[in-house]
Structure formats: C-alpha cells, structure tokens
Amino acid sequence: MKKRYTLFFCLLFLGARASAQGNGPGIRGARAAALGYTSTTLHDVWAVGNNAAGLGQLTRPEVGFYAENRFLLPSFNTAALAVALPLGEVVENRPKNGVVGFEAQRFGGKLYAEQRLGAAYGYRGGQVSVGARLDVLQVSIEGLGSCRAMALSLGGQAEIVPKKLVFGAYLYNLNQARLARYQDERVPTVLRAGLGYQPTEKVLLTVETEKDVDHDADFRAGLEYQVLEVLQVRAGFAALSEQTTGGVGFRAGQLRIDYAAAWQTALGLSQYLSLHLPLTKPAQP
Amino acid sequence: MSQRVRGCFRVTFWLGFVWLLCWVRPTQAQQFPRPTPDLDRLVQELFADQQSDDVPYEDLYETLLLYYQTPLNLNLANREELRGLLLLSEVQISQLLEHRQQVGPLLSLYELQSIDGFDLRTIYRVAPFVTVTDAGPNAARGPLWQRVLHEDNNALFLRYERVLQPRRGYTAADTTSMGRLTSRYLGSPDKLLLRYRVSHTKDFSVGFTAEKDAGEPLAWQPSQRRYGADFMSAHVVVQERGRLKTLALGDYQLQFGQGLLLSSGLQVGKGGETITTIRRSSLGVRPYSSVLESTFFRGAAATVAVSSTVRATAFASYKHVDANHQQSLDSLDGFTEYSSGVLVSGLHRTATELANRKSLGEAIGGGNLTYTSRSGHLAVGLTAVGTHYNRALLRRAELYNAYEFRGQNNLAAGVHYSYVLRNLLLFGETARSSSGGVGTVNGLLASLAPNVDAAVLYRSYARDFHTFYGNALGENSRNINERGLYLGLKVRPAAGWEISAYYDQFWFPWLRYRVGAPSHGHDWLLRLAYTPTKTSLLYAQLRTRLKDYNANNPRPLPLPEPTLRHSLLLFYDTNPTSMFSLRTRVQGTRYREGEGPRRTGYVLAQDVSYTFGRYLRLSGRYALFDTDDYDTRQYVFEQDVLYAFSVPALYGQGTRTYLLAEVRCNRHLTLWLRYADTHYRNQTTIGSGLDLIEGNRRSEVKAQARYRF
Q1: Best mutation site among A160, A237, A241, A243 for testing chain B: the one with the most B CBs within 10 Å?
Q2: Which residues of A15-53 are buried (b: 16+ CB within 10 A; e: fewer)?
Q3: Is pLDDT at A9 greater than 60 in this prediction?
Q4: Which residue among A118, B260, B270, B542 is buried most deeply as judged by most CB within 10 Å?
Q5: Its domain of life (chain B) (predicted)?
Q6: Does B556 or A156 have the greater pLDDT score?
Q7: Does the pLDDT value for residue B136 go beyond 90?
Q8: For residue B50, what pLDDT is reported?
Q9: Across A46-98, where does the E strand assignment appear?
Q10: Does B503 sit within 8 Å of A221, measured CB to CB?
C-alpha cells in the first residue's frame, strides 16, 4: 500500500515538476543527465533524442545504449537503444548528406509504460546545423489499454563563436499530438534553448532553459571537465525540480561509458548509465 | 707621518667605509606607492547582499576589514596567509610562491606583472593590502620596543556618532497603569569609540579599544565589571620569536580549519565572490581590535613550532558574556538556575539589558595541532575546544530547540585538512561535540582553465551538533541542523568580463524558528561584471532565494510554505578623472510568500566623490527608496568614515542622503565628518519601541579623527 502511495506521489511529482517523462522529450545519455539535464547543444549519438541537429556532426556510424532509473523505484526505469548513420562521404568533418538516426525507448513497469520509436535526421551546413525527428508514442496502462500518437520535433544548433560558443534550440512535439479525447489529453509541447561554452578544450559549460506549455520555466546549468585523456567529470543542477547532478565519463578504446547521479531533496537518488561505440575505425587521414 | 695626517687618513678611511657600507646596502627598489584601499568597492565585490537583521553586519565588516589593516608582506607570507586575502586564486598563489623560490624575494610590486597568471586587475585589487619589503629578520631592525615606537603602521582613532532627533528611549519615563516606570535608556544617545593599534606584519601588534554604544551609560562600578566605557578590549601580540611563532595576551581571535570549531567573525559567506570565499583560511591566532562583543577570546594563546612542519597552538580564555538569569521551576532539568541563551547584540542600554550584561562566566580552553608539508600543499590538523559556563544554558522549551545545547559543558573536537593536487584544492573539517552530533564540511576549488574556476562544497551539520565559536559556511547563522551542497563557478570569457555564479541547495532536517517542519530550499546568484578600463566597473547581479517559512494564516498547526525572494542589483562605478568618481546603484527585490501577493522594494542611489587637492575629499549620495513593506526592505552599502560601515535598512518611501568629508590636516591627522539623513514620506513616526522618533526625519552625524604618531 505504501508503495502505491509513493508511486502515486512520484507520478504526481513527475507530472508537475520534472517533465522528464509523461511523454515529454526527456533526455538521453548519462552525459546530458550529469550536466544538469542540459542537452540542446551536445552533438553525440544521443542527439538523436536530445536535439536532432546535433547528429549532423557525426562522421562515423555509432550505436548507443542508455538506461536510467529514477528515485530507486523499479517502475521508473527507462531503457533506450540508438543508432546513427552518416550518409555520403565525409567532407570537412561533416557527412555530405547529413546523418540519420533511429531510436527505440521504453519507460515504466507493469502498471504503466511508455514506448516510443523515433527517426531523426540532422544536417550540418557550415556553422549551422538543423534537424528533425518523428516519434511514434504508445502509452499502455494495465487494465485501461493503450493509445498511440505521432509527434514531430525540430532542432537547430549554431556556432556563434566557432569552437567556443554554441547556441542550440529544440522544439518537441510542435504538432501538439493528442493522446486521448478524454479531457483533451495531449503530449506535452516543450521548447528548450541553451548555450554551450568551451573556454578551453578541456572545459564545457552549458546553460539551458526549458518551457513546457503547462509548467513553469526551468533553468539548468552544467559543467564538464576533462581531467585526463580518458576521464571526464561533470556537475550541474536543474532549478525547477531542485536537482543537483554529477557524473563521470570514461573512454576505453573506442567505447565511451558515462555514468550520472542526480539528487532531489524529497525523492532522493536517480541514476543514469549510457554506453556508445563507433561501428567503424576512424578514417585515416 | 704626523699624527694629524694619520688622523685625517683614519677619518677618510672610516668615512669611506661607511659610505661603502651605505652603498652595498641592498638598494631600495622603486616602490609602488600603495594606493588607499577602496574598501567600499572591496565590500561590493566580496560580500553578499545581506537580507536579515539578526547579524550585526556593520561590526562584522569592520572585523573583516581590520584584517586588511596590516598589509601582508608578499615576501614572507605563506600559502595560507595569501589565501586569507580572498583576492588571489590558488593558481596565482602557487605561481607567486614558485616565483619567490626561483627568483628570490620580490623587489617591488611591479614585479607581480612578470608572474604568470597575475593580470592587472588582480594586481590593482591586492595592491592596497600588500607590501613588498626586504625579508630581513625582525631583530635586524632593533629591539622590539624600538620597533613598536618607530612603526609607521599605527593609528589612534576617535569616533563619535549620534542620531539628532530625540527618541523615546531618551525621554523622561512614564508611569504604566501598574504604577511602574517604563523602561528607558540609561545613557546618552552618543556613540563613542576609541581605538589605538600599532602593528607590523609577522612581528607584533599592540592595541586597545574602548566603545560605548548609543544609550549605554558610562559608569565606574568595578563590582559589576563596568570600567567606564561599556566595552573595553586590549591586546599584545608578538610573532616570530624563534620557536614561538605567536603569543597573544588579552583579546584575540582564532581561526583554524574551515572554522567549524574556531572561526572568529572572519567570514564572508555566500556572495558575489563565488570561489575564494567558500574556503576559510587557517590563520591561527590573530589580534582582536574590533567591537563585536561576542566573537573573541580573552586570555592567552600561543603557537609554537614543534618542528619545521608541525605547529601547536594552545589557548585559554575566560570572560563574561551576556545572558539572562532564570530560576528553574522544573526539578527534572537538574539545575536550579539557568540562562536561555547567550545574547550577542552587545547593547546594554536599559535596566534589563544591564542586568543581563556579563552575567554568565564562560571559560574556554583548547588547542590545535597542525602539520603542514614543506611545500605547503598538504595540511592536516586537530582542533579541540572545551567550553564551560558557570550557569547552565537551557533554551526556551520550544520544539525547534529540542536538540539545542543544554547544560554547562561542551567539548568539541575535530580534524581538518587541506590538500593541493595539481589544479585542485581539497579542504574540509569534521568535528563532533559532546552531544554526539557530528558536523562536517568538505569542498574543493578547481582551476579548470586559466579563465575558469569552479567550487564545490558539501556540508552537513547535525541537529544536535554544538559549536559556539564556529562559523563554517552555511545558510543558517549557526552551524546546526543543516545539510547543503554548493556549486560555484567563475568564468572570464574575455578581457574585462567576468561571470560568477553559484547554486546552493540546502535542507534542514529538523524544525527551525518560524518553520514548523523539516524544510529545504535553494539559493542562486549570477553576477556579470565588466571592467572596461581600470577605473570603471559595471556589474549586474541577480539572486534568488527560496526558503520555507510558516504561513501567516491562523491554523492550529503551522504549515511551512515556500517563500521566494528575487533580488536584482545593478552597479556602475567610474572615475572620469583621478579626482572625480561617480557611482550608481539600483537595487530591487520581489518577495512572495506561498501564493500570496507579490511585493516589491526598490532603491536608486547616486554617489559622487570629488577630491580637492591633497587635503579634502567630499563624497555624497542621494537615494530614493520605495518598498511595499518591511519584508522587502533594502540594505544599501554606504561609504563611511574609515573602517566604519553603515548598511541601513530602508523601507517605506522616501529619500536617503549623506555627505562625507575627509580632511587631511597634516601627515599625522586626518578627520572624517559625515552627515546622513533619511526623510520618509507618508509617515509621522519612525521606528518603534524605545527607538521611536516623532516626525518623518532621522539624521545621524558621525565624526572620526585618526592620528598617526
């Protein structure tokens, strides 16, 4: 019984404070989680879910696996698998015809679950990248059945100062997809905009604001520091949900492993783990 | 050869020898003329904008600034002392020490420019507080009494202050309905301060202070420990006498580790300087010459170098502190009489305040043992502090006091550490008090790049952790019942630009005053500073604080609700010429309790300073304020006579003006005169209680003389 109450409270909390799930865009990858959930300016394989524009900078096919658990509750698990494939030959550090990405994700447990399949495309042209993504969402609640919806998202990234300052924006679900006629339940429409600043090659600072139509604006910030060639440490916070985050990233050969933890005063610990791996050897210059 | 010629020769020889001696004396390098410290600006840059009345800020800032009164010798200062300046980053300190090791002592301040990591802004900021002299031993400058007599860094201050309007506390007493006389202030409305101090860094400090607050009577009653002025303090401190590193007699302060057990009034806390102020410096035994009547020790303290890397400090203090005196009605308490707490205001104006004055004997003893590695990179230490009160302390029987200290004795012991690892500085302190409560504070400062600094600090003070002289970083004014995580950042993205920010999350596991449940909150600050030229500074600062307080509605049970305060500060300071300076300040606050109405407070202040030749400097301010209520009151820093501070709380509507004159009569004597006036609109009385003024004006005059022998 107590567990039920906790779950109910958490769902309420999640619905009201952290638009992480509840069909929202969420974040992908433990790197973004460790950076206080700032994700719009990043450009790794997880851009497939964070901001499709970031895909445009991938020069090799990559595959990634991501798992998260919120507040140590088994019903709050998320798992995702992503693939990114550059199209055409690589010229000046960018694929000529852009990059296409696919993602499958599942959140929840037996009582309540969300699945999504996404296809994304990102293209980089000079200092500006653009991207788009199409999601097919499915929500299933035990005893109530399930429903589906399609959501379209757009993203962009621009280098304001080359290699130093990047601006990113991401609009999730611009078509305001409807999940159910009952009470006109819709998939949240979320707009994110952020800046990424690299004062030196070893340091990355990110700030981001997120506005969900139905909720207050969130402010987030993160810091990444490359301690060693193979080790990165990260820290950040998200103001609206009052979470402090931290994490590490390792590189083992071609494999990258990221871990993050987030702390919320009332609800406790959340943990994130992701791995990603290029599928081909780096091109020999 | 005749006697005469020989005598001539001898004289010539000796003259020549003396001349040669003079000539081979180390030539005095060209000295950078030490600029007068712009304390006002330093305060702006270092301190937080305070938002409460329960801390005597004005005295606190003075305490902190007296630390800067004795300039630090860059050729002798160790790592910890350099950190204590709060103006240098760890990397800069390391570079300076390395430079000293490789090139030898600095010959002049100009040399700082040649050290990696020292930009002009840093040099201008530290210049008023440091000196560069040849690092000869003290003894070479003659015996101690002569060094004291000939020291240039000495000053006698005499300060006078008074509110011009009559206040209720100074009128004749009325008779209450019960037939008793109402309470009144027993002394005159004048505030007086006399202070003398002579000091030389790493050598000695001698000083005394006498102070009488407004309303305090001057009285000679040795039986009640009253010897003229209400507050008297004196100290003699000698340093660097061979193995004896410091010996302090009289009033002194102690600061070790992160100040969890011993931190005497030298703290800045969360503010616009988001990195260096997070860490406390182990400054050890320091002379006390301030007027905070509760944050010092009285007795003796000594630091001895056991070996070149180990230093031991022992101290003993006995003084009387203010506390009320109550008889216990409950035999279960185990004591017949008790005090409900130590009073720290230091005001003794009415019969009640005088009855509580120095009524509780407090004996403190303890020590510290610190090992510092030769490079200064590693420091580990132990601190123990035992406190004994001659009457039990027992706070009011409220639920939020359930875990507060009760009884007569407290022994707290802890370990502290500090370690430099490449570009990281790790530090912390953990202590346990007699109650079994544990407090710990740990942090790191990291220079991630030449232009990026970051800080992290975690603290956890148990609800039953008791420290009386500790003041490590925290949201509460005392280190009890708090856990928190602080993240700080400072970035200099381009020349002249600086972005500082912090985000601090805190939670209080137990109830607090006005908060009837465990609660939490956060606090963040963002400051953007731009120095287009070396003579102008522009910054914008945004701060938000969210904390829980009991709602004001009449409920049977208190219900904490989130209280949100946004503060904005815009500050512009420019010196179009070296004689003329302009300062503009805009401050605003938005305050909201739960779902209640939004309330705002606003201040716009314009300052002008002009220097007339060498002898006179005039400064003035005209400020307009408009706040909805007392909760949105505005604290605005004001320029004041040297080492004094005024940070009045402005609320209601009206204007605030002041005029300050600094007159340099001659080499020895400088005078300051200040007249300040607050003119309220739509009010017929100001203040309340004994400070009530009939009318809509409140004016203060202040005068100070400094004489240098």
Answers
A1: A237
A2: eebbbbbbbbbbbbbbbbbbbbbbbbbbbbbbbbbbbbb
A3: no
A4: B260
A5: Bacteria
A6: A156
A7: no
A8: 61
A9: 62-69, 77-86, 90-91, 94-95
A10: yes
Q: Token digits for B47? A: 């301190």
pLDDT tens by residue, B219-238: 888 888 888 888 999 999 99
Query: How far is C-alpha B31 from the geometric centre of its chain's CA atoms?
Result: 30
Asked whether residue A53 carries a pLDDT value surpassing 80, the answer given is yes
Separation CA B230–CA B216 (nearest Å): 7
Question: Average pLDDT, stretch B147-174?
Answer: 89
Q: Is the CB of residue B487 less than 8 Å away from at least one CB of chain A?
A: yes
Q: Which residues pair with A168 in a beta bridge?
A: A157, A194
- Asked whether residue B28 carries a pLDDT value surpassing 80, the answer given is no
**Predicted local confidence at residue A7, as pLDDT:** 43
Q: How many residues does chain A have?
A: 285
Name the amino acid, one letter, at B518: P
In the block, tokens 């522009």 appear at: B538
The sign of the torsion formed by the CA atoms of B66, B70, B71, B76 equals negative
User: What's the mean per-residue pLDDT of chain B?
Assistant: 86
- DSSP annotation of B111 reads G
In Å, how far is A112's CA from the nearest CA of chain B?
31
Least confident of A103-112, B237-246, B268-277, B628-637: B268-277
Instruction: Name the band, by pLDDT with cuts 50, 70 and 90, for residue A103.
Output: very high
Q: Which of B26-40, B116-130, B472-486 has the lowest mean pLDDT?
A: B26-40
The residue written with tokens 């209080």 in the block is B508
Question: How far is B615 from B627, CA to CA, in rounded Å?
Answer: 39
Kindly tell me the burial class for residue B328, based on how many C-beta atoms sit within 10 Å of its own C-beta (0-12, 13-18, 19 or more): middle
Q: State the nearest Cα–Cα gap between A226 and chain B, in angstroms.
A: 9
Taking only the tens place, the pLDDT of each residue in A190-212 is 999 999 999 999 999 999 999 99
Residue B501 near chain A (CB below 8 Å): yes
Contacts of A224 in chain B (CB under 8 A): none
B503–A244 CB contact, under 8 Å = yes
Q: In a 3-state reduction of DSSP, which class is residue B213?
A: coil
Closest CB to B505 among A221, A236, A242 = A242
Single-letter amino acid code for the residue at A133: R
pLDDT per position as a tens digit, B166-199: 998 898 888 877 777 888 898 899 999 999 999 8
B612 min Cα distance to partner chain A (Å):
45
The two structure tokens encoding residue B407: 């009884």
pLDDT value at B334 more than 70: no
Nearest by CB to residue A202, choosing from B448, B454, B507, is B448
Please judge whether B448 and A235 are an interchain contact, meaning their C-beta atoms are less than 8 angstroms apart. no
Q: What is the pTM of this model?
A: 0.87
pLDDT top residue among A132 and B113: A132
Q: How far lies B359's CA from each of B322, B324, B642, in Å?
A: 6, 7, 33
Closest CA to B400 of B298, B315, B293, B518: B518
Q: With contact defined as beta carbons under 8 Å apart, do A107 and A10 qualify?
A: no
Task: Choose the closest CB to B452 out of A199, A239, A266.
Answer: A199
Look at A237 and B503 and tell me if their CB atoms are within 8 Å: yes
Dist CA B640 CA B193 (whole Å): 15
**By the CB < 8 Å criterion, does A37 face chain B?**
no
CA distances from residue B50 to B316, B484, B545, B561 in whole angstroms, order as listed: 33, 19, 12, 22
Burial (CB count within 10 angstroms: exposed 0-12, middle 13-18, buried 19+), residue B374: exposed
DSSP state at residue B114: G
CA-based nearest distance A78→chain B, Å: 27
Distance of CA B478 to the CA centre of its chain: 16
Q: Which residues of B touch A221 (CB under 8 A)?
A: 501, 503
Contact status of A261 with chain B (Cβ, < 8 Å): no
Taking the Cβ of residue B497 and every Cβ of chain A, the question of whether any pair is shorter than 8 Å is answered with no
Token pair for B155: 């000053």
